[in-house]
Specification:
The structure holds 2 protein chains of 2 kinds. By secondary structure, chain A is mostly beta strands. Chain A contains 2 helices and 14 strands. Chain A has one domain: Porin, CATH 2.40.160. In chain A, a hairpin with a 2-residue loop joins strand 10 and strand 11. Chain B is an alpha+beta fold. Chain B has one domain: Alpha-Beta Plaits (2-Layer Sandwich), CATH 3.30.70. Chain B has 3 helices and 8 strands. Chain B has a 5-stranded mixed beta barrel with strand order 4-5-6-8-7. Classes of the chains: A mainly beta, B alpha+beta. The interface between A and B is large, with 41 and 34 residues.
Amino acid sequence: MRRLWLLAGVLALTAGAWASDHGPVFGYATPVNSQYEMSFDTGLFGRYGSKGTQFSTGSQFGYGLTPQLTLNAFVPATFGSGSLPETRIYPGGEWTAGASWRFFHDVTSVGKRKEATGSLALVVPGPQADSGVLGSLARAPGVAGTVAAGMASRSSYFWVGGGYTRFAGKDGDRRPDTVSWSTVYAYRPAKWRRSYDQWDYRWLAEFTGEHTGDVVERGVTVANSRSTSLWLGPSLLAILKNVAIEGGVQAPLYRDVNENIYGRERVRFAINFSYLKYSARPNAH
Amino acid sequence: MKKMIVLAAMLVTAMGAQAEYEQVNMTVFGMDCAPCAHAIHVSMKAIPGVEKVDVDLNTGLVTIALNQGNAATMHQFNEAVEKNGFTHKDAKVVAKGKLTGTAAAPVFEVSGTGDRYQLVVAGAAADVSSLLGKTVMVTGTLPQAAKGKTPERLSYVSIKEAQ
């Protein structure tokens, strides 16, 4: 019961590693909520490889405490039985709660801004077990931190970001530390720079990478359980006022993965839906 | 006596209703996408007295038309921009208010709102002495103010006695 209260408290306190909202669908980005804005994201994410397929659905809730600080909570559900490497840039089976702080914000001209955002989150194992080599591990909470920086304009967007997740050990087991990074470029052609009450589209090219460390099982490091992979693919984002739909697919550019453990992951895809509820409430001064 | 108090209150209310912003065209920096514009639209529309809001993402221009008798303040417009993480720049306004101060240093009071500006002529020097103490209609530009602040000066291009 005490643990449940602790979990509820953490969720109430509430940055997910998962980028969403109206930014990239795979990579890291800088946008945070407006003050008092509530955001809701839900999506379907898939990873397909030679050792099975893994799907996850996830819903993320965000609340803008100030124009620069957003609280987030992410609740996932997974299905499928693929044996695939740990990932943190992609939603897995962990409940996540944290905060994103836009610590640099430079609005330079009409439609243009440069910004940087950092996030810190507590990652708690969800009720569903992982599959593959990770499925046999006793799971413990972890801490995830991300930083992203970039620029937005009416025509182009560019973001770079990175994240690190470290899990605690439990019963001699420990999930791998994960380092993730991404570079995203987005472009809105001139004919799509329309009035805001029309559909707003943009293309994105998302380049992501991840390195996962050793898996530790009963105090012993599982041999060759590290993995490194690079992914690239296109995404399309469509927004109408406060509703966004986004889809993307990624193919591997580089894989340094033990195929006996994890198989050969071939494709990743994501479809995401966002609803943004802006507040009419004035600031409290 | 009671009737006099009621009459005085009605006069004050009527005078207050005369002093108001009629139109505010504000340039906002940082809006890149549809949700940005939507956020500004929602925030501006929530200000009592705002009748219509248009947002042009390509020029950053937020056009606000206000109802007669409104008491919306410049601080409220600026705050609506700030809470969404954007930056307000200059604003072209059409406002009705009382001209006070002196001919050399006129002050424009949008008395229903509490907003008060030193009037600075944008073009050739104009003699406003005949308008002192009267309700006037001013068209001019408010420069960018620091976050949480409202400008102190209004640079006007036209001033005339209000009908």
